[in-house]
Amino acid sequence: MTVVTIKRCWTHFAVVSLAITLLSACGDSGSSKDSVSASEEAALDNTAEVQAYYAANTDFFTFKTPADLPADLQWQSGEGLPEMGSPQARKGGTEYRALQDFPRTLRTAGPDSNGSFRVYLRDDVSMRLGLRHQDEFEFVPGLANEWAIGEDKRTIYIRLDPNARWSDGQQVTANDFFFMFWFYRSPYINAPWYNNYYGTMYTNITRYDDLTFSISAKTAKPDADARVLELVPIAEHFYKEMGDDFVERYQWRVAPTTGAYSVLDKDIKKGRSIALTRIKDWWAKDKKHYRYRFNPDRIHFSVIRDTDKIFEAFRRGDLDQSGLNQSEYWYEKLPDSDPDVQAGYIHKAVFYNQRPRPNNGLWINQSRPLLDDLNVRLGINYATNWQLVIDKFFRGDYGRMNTAHDGFGEFSHPTLKSREYDIDKALEHFAAAGFDKRGPDGILVRETGERLAFTVSTGYPTLKDVLTILKEEAAKAGLELRVEVLDSTAGWKKVQEKQHDLHFSAFGVFLEMYPRFWEHFHSDNAYDKAFLEDGSVNPQRKLKTQTNNLEAFASPEMDELILRYRTSDNTDEMIDLAHKMIEIHHDSATFVPGFYQGFFRIGYWRWVRYPENFNMKHVRSATQFFVHWIDEEIKQETLDARKSGQAFEPEINYYDQWK
Amino acid sequence: MFRFNPQTLKKLRRFRHIKRGYYSFLFLAALLVVLCFGELLVNSRALLVKYEGEFFFPTYTAFHPGSDFGLDYSYEVNYRELKQHFAGEGAGNWVLMPLVPYNAYENNSEDGVFRPTAPSMENQHYLGTDTTSRDILARLFYGTRIALIFSLAFTAWVYLIGISVGCAMGYFGGIFDLLFQRIIEIWSNIPFLYMVIIVFSVIPSSLSVPSRIGILLSIMVLFSWTGMTYNMRTETYKEKTRDYIAAARIMGASDTRIVFRHILPNVLATLVTFMPFVVVSAISAITALDFLGFGLPPPTPSLGELLKQGTANLRTAPWIVSAAFSTLVILLTIVTFIGEAVRESFDPKKFTVYR
Q1: Which member of B106, B114, B316 has the closest CB to residue A333?
Q2: Which of A462, B296, A387, A433 is nearest to A454 (CA)?
């Protein structure tokens, strides 16, 4: 999951937004001819090219013999961790789900591949070398049977499971990992982010034999094992034809997978539906941590563009489950008193999870006029009534974020609290910035007549009500917020070009050990050459666009801490540095921490079964780890009961063991 | 002094006799007047406050901070609370609130949660509240006002541009006509809705809401004036060849005089009959844009936004969609009635099938 990181954060939310769906509705047609032309094209063979690349980069691609393997390696295999999934799980049945948009491509890399369906093609389904245990945070075997950390703390030695097979029957070998580096570094995939990540984050791959190899990460970090173990191989034999036309050639080809599910060609009904089918005799079907997961034989996805229609389809029983995270769904549209819930046909569940939280909040662009004034920013912090939004709009279910880095365990700051809504303090700080008089409409003005007004933009059309509530409350403190609601693409573009005043958004979450600071707070990402040699501010510095430093945050002190944090291999030192940086960030008041959702809520028909504890500590959604199963007998029983009016025991469950 | 010619007077008389259209017209006119003074009917600001022997009329003045009325805050006073506060004090101070004591923006939840609440006389949300507890009547009221003003302004501009260009094309003819026809053909083939969406998405939001609405208006006008030109062009062509125009020209009348004094009054009938339908299309367009989320910037009250909320909460809050839908239907029906009546009364053939 580490690999997909920043790019994916925004798409998570993009998928939710209705506006993008409307726009994309016009973009689906015309793709059918690609699959035809791909098969008609002459077959290529890039083996020679790949081998030449290996030969030209001997520092990176190294070939050794088993005898060269260091002797004193401590092999581990995640022994003794409790099994994921439930032994009661039954295999079989069909699960019905919905997609808001048909996948633009079945490639997992390159243009348009970053959509919501990729989790089913790769991220959540493909086997990785190791899998992070979702209760214990340790790794358990995946494609690798065992692994060892080298003396330099950044080289991980891998022994592949000899049973590991691609879905077309070929064995998974070290070659597929060599090829993975070639693949992601290749210009053919049209994905600069991957080119950069695989080109810079790893320094070496060494082959000892078919099943034994090592990969070195760039720096010796406490989580160097994660950087390697979470890698997903690329099938060398399948991508033989890869060349300049990769994007078109592989547009609709289903790549072989090491995971439990694959897409069959006959199930691709463009624009309408697509399905995952469980692979017969999947190589890991009896492997621990995998045998009780991936239970339904088939998962069928219908394309339904409108969120409300998806919900109605669920209520009819056409879909098996539906997320109920939004309060209006949980309390109004499917209340506990609903006849289907009361009759026990539909179950409701709330599961409290623990994982890094998306940092929802207002990102303040310091490079804009007025916002470079600390007092104005402090005033904005005090004038933003998130608590009201949480209490009244989210009905008290959500929590208030305290910093931009909550949910990272020890790495998150233990004591810092976000600034509460306080009109008096806000007015005090605004007055200190010269805004001490209210105009005829109640908005503060300076003596020069300048109004205290900022644009607050967002790329989440579904959350526009949040901003209108904040606007009304901010007006009480004499601050005018002009709400600008954009679709997700336009919103993202706006912040990437640093055109925003205040922007409401969140960076996505993926389960990792410690938060990132360089992307958001290093001066390299704020300005071109922010400081001169002597450490003073460069008067000619230019704002840097296309980075995730949304605050134009530039401070030599922070830069130095970030550098130490990035090079440190000591967990305690990193925690200490993280706390210091979070404090500096808090003091700068460039971010107004918003809300986080400490749980997920879902409604599901009675025939969808979950393990006793429902799910695992760190999961992001109920279905992420496929621990549920479909019981066809119960389905028939429930459908019959619905007809005859027979009721069951209602089930509304709160799983707060990780709250 | 401008005087209607007898022909026009006859047409107006006929319009008055078509009861359905005439009463619709009176209703719409009354509605417009009411909407113009809407702040006196639907507003969170009081009509009249008596405090310490002094009278305040806050409706159209600058805001009054709470401290003006002995409260301890510096932001705008909440007059509903003030009313209760005064009533509780019993010191002879009082507040007179408008009929609907809410504005279109404030989130006023009765039970501590922002959610749709059903219509209720008791808490004076006569049409209920929307998903963030804003009063639907207030939002409908101001939404309708904006839609109507918007569509009238839209009609005026479309007519102005359409008539000028169309008239010029018909009157001057020749190369000018040929050139403009081609330009209009190209221009009118640009898909209007997409252009509005694209252009409006790049408008900077730092502009105030009224100016953004103004920009939206001009974009819509820019892509809508072409339809009018063709009617004007043919009408002008027809009139131009009539004898009275030739007579005027022989008598030495200037082009301007011929166009404005002779041609325009004679083609007026055609123009007037179109007018209500242009209004209808403008209201529909702005509502559709809002519904899609590309129209008036939030949180501006609008019919389309309410419709959207309503369809999303069809099952749980049917009062949202029914209020917005009925308003839209009534509005469009009335304008259409007027349009039919106008068309009929301006029809030279008195006895037609449209009776």
Answers
A1: B316
A2: A433
Q: Which of B63, B133, B206 sits opposite A482 (nearest CB)?
A: B206
What is the identity of the amino acid at B209? V
Tokens 């078509």, residue located: B18
B103 to chain A: closest CA residue: A472
What per-residue confidence (pLDDT) applies to A284?
Answer: 94
Residues 6+ apart with CB under 8 A from B246: none
A491 interaction partners in chain B (CB closer than 8 Å)? none
Name chain B contacts of A438, Cβ cutoff 8 Å. 63, 65, 74
Separation in Å, CA of B95 to nearest CA in chain A: 21
Mean pLDDT value of segment A168-177: 94
For the ranges A224-233, A529-538, A556-565, which has the lowest average pLDDT?
A: A529-538
- Residues A407 and A403: their CA atoms lie apart, in Å, by 10
How far is the alpha carbon of B250 from chain A, nearest alpha carbon, in Å?
59
The CA-atom distances, in angstroms, between B191 and each of A20, B195, B281, B341 are 20, 6, 16, 32
Q: How many Cβ pairs closer than 8 A exist between chain A and B?
A: 90
Which SS3 state, helix, strand or coil, does residue A130 take? Answer: strand
Task: Name the nearest CA neighbour of A498 among A562, A443, A545.
Answer: A545
Question: Could B293 and A328 be called an inter-chain contact, meaning their C-beta atoms sit closer than 8 Å?
Answer: no
Q: Which residue has the tokens 């996805």?
A: A301
pLDDT band, residue A367 (cuts 50/70/90): very high
Question: Using omega within 30 degrees of 0 as the cis cutoff, is the peptide bond preceding A192 cis?
Answer: no
Amino acid at B191: P
Please state at what angle helix B264-292 crosses helix B209-222, rounded to 10 degrees. 120
What was the ipTM of the complex prediction?
0.83
Mean per-residue pLDDT pooled into runs of 10, chain B (355 residues): 72 89 94 92 91 89 88 89 88 89 87 86 89 91 92 92 90 90 89 77 72 85 86 88 91 89 81 86 88 81 91 88 93 91 78 54
Tokens of A601: 């809520």
Does the global pTM surpass 0.90? no
Contact A442/B65, CB-based, under 8 Å? yes
Query: A465–B205: do the CB atoms touch at under 8 Å?
Result: no
Q: Hey, what are B12's tokens?
A: 């107006």
Nearest CB partner across the interface for B107, out of A423, A472, A476: A472
Got the DSSP string for B26-53? HHHHHHHHHHHTGGGTB-SS-SEEEETT
Q: Is the Cβ pair B132, A393 closer than 8 Å?
A: yes
Measured CA to CA, the distance from residue A567 to residue A516 in angstroms comes to 13
Residues of A within 8 A of B76 (CB-CB) are 442, 475-476
Taking a C-beta distance cutoff of 8 angstroms, is the pair A247, A190 a contact? yes
